[in-house]
Model the fold of this input.
Amino acid sequence: MILAMNFNTIMKRLVLGGSWASRRMKAIRFSFINIPGRIVERSRELIVRLVKGHPALELYLEARRRIMAMMPVYG
Done:
């Protein structure tokens, strides 16, 4: 439980940032996680299709950019 709580806190601060860092998990779940969408597998890719024009779309894209920036580069 402590590990999950720490991971939640780290992700809120590093990935979501701003006003999201102080929100509870319940608020994040209802406004960010529970957005209607569909996962489509096509040509060995997973595509997440979200509702067009949803206000959280920009937040999703920014969170994804921040997560990708944290990944180490091997080469």
Notes: Helices lie at 2-16, 25-33, 57-70. The chain has a mean pLDDT of 85. The chain has one domain: 2-70. Strands lie at 37-42, 45-50.
